[in-house]
Amino acid sequence: EVQLVESGGGLVQPGRSLRLSCAASGFTFDDYAMHWVRQAPGKGLEWVSGISWNSGSIGYADSVKGRFTISRDNAKNSLYLQMNSLRAEDTVLYYCAKDMRYDSSGYYQDWGQGTLVSVSS
Amino acid sequence: QSALTQPASVSGSPGQSITISCTGTSSDVGGYNYVSWYQQNPGKAPKLMIYDVSNRPSGVSNRFSGSKSGNTASLTISGLQAEDEADYYCSSYTSSSTLFGGGTKLTVL
Fold it and tell me: Would you call A15 an interface residue with chain B, using a CB distance cutoff of 8 Å?
């Protein structure tokens, strides 16, 4: 059974940094691209960033480009999102999502339960 | 990167069919066959229902079908059931990013 467990969320002041982690199990982690997708309470989904199986291809939404960095450690079956210069509008639930394919297809076949980030002074 | 356009809500009675539209541009929906649909129940993570415009992942009911014409993709649910009541999101993948629609709330009357 595929399991994706996010951690690292919490309350942080504007301008500060936070690092999210996603621990994966139940599948061969380095066979798949991985993504971060976020959702504000009661709002729609927003793709944040994606990374291919070997980290050779990385993409970001314009809203986070230059502030967020995605990475993965295939030896540890883990996905990360380093978030810098956080803003109030980054206050959302962050999901870790497994792609259907090794290179990004945009199809998120499995999802974690999410970790909540709150940016407030 | 503008979001794809979906109706805010649709409704139907049990047994009926409904269709949810998803309108983009020639740079996303119209330019690629990487369209997908997700179902999300309250407090839960989204579930992939359709990929590659019209393919169903294993385990998804064949009551769910997808199509595309030009810059508009559509999700059709036939034989509507109470358990289908949820939020539905379309998505289109381009070479550099993924766009989601704003979501459609399906109410089963």
Answer: no
